[in-house]
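Page 37, top half.
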Amino acid sequence: MTIWDDGIALDAVFTKPEGKDRGPVCVLIHGFTGWKDEDHILAAEQAMLEAGVAVLRADMYGHGKSGGQFHDHTLFKWMSNAMTLIDYVRGLDYTTDIYLCGHSQGGLAVILAAGLEHDRVKALIPMSPAWKIPENCRKGIMLGLPFDPDRVPEDTPAWSRGILGGNYIRVAQTIHVEDFIKRYKGPVLIIHGEGDLSVPVEDSIELAKMYPDCTYVPIPEDTHCYDLHLDMAAKALKEWLTALQK
């Protein structure tokens, strides 16, 4: 399906557990340079369905099959996307509760969205969350590359994906994630691979201490996208969601 956010077409898929007419729905968001059909995203979706949770997964601005250029995407645009997806879920007759789950930059996006919509979001699941992107941009680090934070580069190489525009950094520098974290008091599950070379596992250990109701699950020796033990990450997600609904 297509969900529109301020003139931008977001490509999305809604899937519900077999035999259920109503229940919780989780908005599921991929990471930086990712898309909605990556293996770890699909595994998370399957775990949710097995736990009785419907899923709305979508490609975000400038990614996958959605509109917008990768070069022009910013965290503000992803925050708008996330809120639009939440509004879509709220409008479904199916929905009883709204959950948010995101991987990497998607993990950051759902942390921000949960803070903005803390009265609507009933559960939050950041997976390998890159929640220190704004802090690093203020320090002058983007994708591991140093820069003068007072002289933001117009373009930054973004691996094989292409070039990321300077407005991404300018926007990120204004976001103080701790303010959003403080606003959300509901249950949180954080999953992180202990061998993650993209986002340090220590970031999630620190993040877990900032939420009053948080479960932290480390995946031994695993990578940013759970290439070694995706089954363990999915199992942790399924078990936590199953217990949440009892």
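Page 37, bottom half:
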Amino acid sequence: MAADDKVALVTGASRGIGRAIALALGREGFRLALVARTGPELDEVARELESDGGEALSLACDVTDPEAVALAVRRAVERFSRLDVLVNNAGVVEGQGFRDVQVEEIGRVLDVTLRGTIVATRHALPYLLQHAEGAAVVNVGSLAGRQALRGAAVYSAAKHGVLGFADSLFENVRETGLKVCTILPGFVDTPRVSDATELERSRMISPEDVADAVLWALGASPRTCPTEIVLRPQRSPFRA
């Protein structure tokens, strides 16, 4: 099947990594369903895709709302008649160290980063399985899901959960041919990383690097599934 017949839904698509992934998929010929809370920024990404000859649908949606997620998935399938790829990118990190984090913020980080991933996958899965050979669930995880990250205990816990969920999901669907992959980048140069940190932005991973990893995973042989792809900066991003 030609790539321009395929449909991808990307959460957190309005900025940063999600935007880069959406644009990369669009360049490969995918039709895009774009999901994020920020409608105007989402519309801007859609216009950019369409200006390059692509097709995109903006779906303003908070992934912490299961009914809204279900509606977004249905609207995508109604528009494009199918769904081949789900990219779970939406995530947030707590703004303070654990001793200062508010209980409400704990819930928000877990709801967006972990629960949102699970809920989006649950609603998308029946449609993905209709075209399982060549279809995929790709999660944007983090090295924080494999090792400790100082100052972001809740985010790290959520990303560990994403990996556990993805591993179990793969075992449940692997005989169908559906791929399940989690990208684990180190520090990515997005607004989420404060300018006040000890990190050198020029040495960080770019959002486009993560998008390239998504494309590589989707292009993998049908005989294999790259269940995890770890991306580390070639040079340490920490200032000397």
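Margin note: The longest helix spans residues 103-128.
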